[in-house]
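Two proteins were folded this term; both appear here.
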Amino acid sequence: MIFRISASILLLTVLPGRAQTPAKDTRSAAISDARMRSLLKVIPFDFTEDSTGGATVFAIRLDGHPVAVRNRGEGLNLSACFEGVVDPMQVNQWNREHFSTRVYLDEKGCASLGSDVTFGGGATNQAILDFIRRFCTDVAVFARFRANPPAAPDTPSAPQAARVESPGRLPLPVGVMAWSQLGPYAKRTPPWPETAGSVPGLLKIHPNLTLKYDPDQWKPAASRGDGQFAFSHASGAAHALVVTEHSAVPLDSVEDVALANAQSLDPHATVVFRNRRWVNGVASWFLKIKATVGTIPMVYWGCFYVFEGATVQVVTYTEKSRLPEYEQAFTDVLNGLTASR
């Protein structure tokens, strides 16, 4: 059978009220087919249902890729098929660097991205939808990763276009994150007000989000007026960026999206440290990423927040050889972000 849901789908937004979780969101250990059917109807895609073989499989298409949602009663298995040949080196790199998904060959020989979850203590409707949404983000990330095969270790990375502006002269492995939000999974949010009231030493990003910094150490270097703010250290050898976007990346996918941005410039970029943080009840990721830009080894320390339906990146960076000089300055800036609800 096929269920059809009429909706106008935009790239990054949905019509208000179309993708809403059912009002009753009680926790239940069992995920019945009827419950899954009801939740998938919340998503404005056509889907088919196949109950042959004992397990019910719901099939949708996501950005041109067939996605199977298998209901296992107390958990879910999701998989997306990517046609064509996938470089084994890419498969190994993805499986080594990513923890919530894996790449494998399915029974039909298709390179598939897969993820599993078991709700041992029961699952709410929101938890199920969040898991599906994170997987959809990972499909976008893997598609981009697949389009950028690893270069040889001694091959300089090529400059990329349409990147976040840098106060320095080097291209940046830092970019916007909204590209990862497919179809109806991005949340529509009203525009944030302008950053009126900012003064030296205090950047007002949002009425409930501010960045404190030492104005003697950090000087505003550029502002494009579209949610991007850049600072340069007084020495000129270290920089900081603040990037705000009106699209909420699933928090558990932030690391994958940030790494994908870095690897679009340097395919060998890696996350060398990760830590989940809380600031006044707002969750974030603290990531340390190393990448070679041109021929220069660089280090990037960043805090990534998902806040009131939007994403905020605060990233500091310098040459790897000079990191010891700026560790304390970077720490002070990253700890200067204050969030409140």
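Next, the second protein.
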Amino acid sequence: MKGPSRYRARTAASLALAALVLFAAFTLAACGSSDGTASDAMTPTAAATSASPPSLPVAVQEFHGMLPVVWTEAKVKERPFKTTETVGDVVQMHGAVVTYRHECSDPRLSGTIDIVLNIDQRQADDSARLWGTSRLRNQGGTWVGKWTGGIAGAGEAAHATHVYLTQKGTGGYAGLVARSSGRSVDDAEGFAPDIEIVGAGWIETIDGSPVPPAPGPGATPADWTPVVAIATMKETAYDGPGPWVFACEASDPRVSGRLEGQLEEIGAERPDGSIDYRGRSILTSEAGAWDSPWSTDVRGPGRVEHFQYGTSSGSGAYAGLTYRAFWHFMERQDYVPGDTFLVPGWVEEVE
């Protein structure tokens, strides 16, 4: 049996703030297996790759009340868990504090962020449930909030941490709310300085009024364009093998269009209802397509909270670009056509 010291090093390293996109999850309660084959309907059409590309966004603008942002994080320090206890197969580690340097495309969300980390980690496969609080501060004000997350177990998704965070602004940021998802991956051997911690989300106002524009330039990579999309379900797969079909309207027209996805692989459900799974999707847009051959996704205990993340390669007019996006949702009942999902992410140039 692995000792708590291994879990302590790994979980504090993995925290960051993370989560996953693409398609796979909307019916895990109804689907138990997949043959792993792709649907013919998920092949981009010739027409989708021949049109002239839309002009690139000049600036990130508010989209249906949401101002898109992207961010990266680097760990500064950590303080140990206050309590560690093993209950059955689960190592419960609670009360650690981890500090990160948080850099965002919107300077209002750049600064130092302190995360209070609680983790219940299953020894059988290293998967885990995460939750806690956060406090992000800079000269303009402070953001405080709560977050939830999960760590994928053994397999191709191993050591991927996914989180979802909601923060309310105080001081100079009073009246604003920031929502975001994030993801990090480690090698299970503890924190490494070059670990990649990335995320995306948006700023909105509490009263629905327009979001004030960013007061200046941000600190994330210059070739990342933040984007947020509204995905409206058109077809579900609760009564069959798939695919799911969504109509996507995005702040960046390059990732607006028809999104089809399906399950590729489903892991064994754990006693608490959590599970790891993966899927694939294709988004066909005005002048090209975005193909994500697989995603690693996490469903938390109780068969409710889902974290999804996917990387899509562009073709047609979007060749040489990558689209990364996060889905986070609570599945308390089967979804039906007309249901909507908010999907933050970014478009970047391929190195």
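The helical segments are 4-14. The two ends are 42 Å apart (CA to CA). These notes refer to the second protein only.
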